[in-house]
Each structure stands twice: as C-alpha cells, then as structure tokens.
Request: fold
Amino acid sequence: MARLTGRARASALAGLYAALGIANSVAAAKRSRAVQWATKPLLMPVLAAFALAVAADREADLRLPAAAIALSGLGDTALLGAESSDSWFVPGMGAFAAAHACYITALARAGAARGVRPRVAAGYAALWAVLIAVLWRNLGSLRVPVAAYSLLLVAMAVLASGRNRAAAAGGALFVVSDALIACGLAGIDAVPGQDSAVMPTYVAAQFLLAAGFLRPPRDNQKP
Reply:
C-alpha cells in the first residue's frame, strides 16, 4: 500500500512539475513577471521532491543530483532578479555552474565516462568552440564567465551522454537552452521565437536529467 502511495505521490509531483513548467514557459513568452515569480522558484523544489519520491530507498544515490537541482533553483531565482538588475546575472550563472559541478561529480562517480562515445565528445567540443567564437565579440565583460560556464555545461552534457538516453537528452537540451540565453546576451537572434524556447527546453532538460539518474546507467550503449 505504501508503495502505491509513493507512486501516486511521484505521479502527482510529475504532473505539478509539468503544469508549473507550462505556466512558466507561457509567462516567459508573454513577459508576465507576476506569473514567472509565482512559478519559476517552485520548479526545482518540485522536481527534487519528485526525484526523491521515485528514488525511495535509493535516496543516497540522489544526493548530488538533488544538490544540483537545488542549486539550479537558486540560479532560477537569481536570474529572475537579473531581469530588473544585471548584478544578479553572474551570481545566477555561478549557482548553475555549481549545479553542473554536482551533476558532473555524480556522473563521474557512476562511471558515465566509460559510456561516452568519442564522436559525441568531439561534437560537443566543436559546438562549444564555434559558439564561443561567434559570440565572443558581443559578450563584453561576460566573455570569460560565459566561456568558463559553458565549458562546464558542455562537460556535463558529454558525461550525461555516457549514462543513458534520458540523461543524454537532458544534457543536450540544457546546452540548447543555455546557448539560446547566450545568443540573447550577445544580441543575436539564432532562431525564431528564441526567447520563448529557453524555458521549455530548460524544464525538459532538468526533468530528463533527473530521470537519467533514476534509471539504470548505460541503457544507450551497444551490447
């Protein structure tokens, strides 16, 4: 009975996360500050609760990913503040950098590096180099912080690709989401509806990363 209750709780939390993600994505697209402030700070706490509910007696394995999710929540709140004061942007990026460090440590400890395919790592490295080269001139004082942060982000995505399909997709979407933010910082419109795509890709990325840690590793490797 307790097990069914746990599953029901996890399902409810997943549904709440999806609802919050949709509401925040719509609010971000429409620039509704009130709805953004009401929903964005709740996203990561709900995701963390979902992950811990699914993990059940494996909570110890989720400590680092849960820390990454919590740090991402701090980053989310700081970036909300950055919309009215630029002084909040670097602290927000720092919180996300710490989150990626937690993800990287968790992935490395789980042996994800063994599952990384060289062509995937090379592709991410090339993408990082091209992105920084294109954006560098227009980033101003954020050049070094963005370059360092994005290198950490790409390292996380590379390691995530070696864990399983869910983690790999989460890492890739995180790169997409943050690349769109970087393009916005540089004043470059890379794709139509660029600003509106940031939150949906981010929300999906975080959920898939959490799912990747909840599922067995190496389900994407060849026999």
The chain has a mean pLDDT of 91. DSSP finds eight helices and no strands in the chain. The first helix runs from residue 2 to 30. The helical segments are 2-30, 33-55, 63-82, 89-109, 118-135, 143-160, 165-185, 194-214.
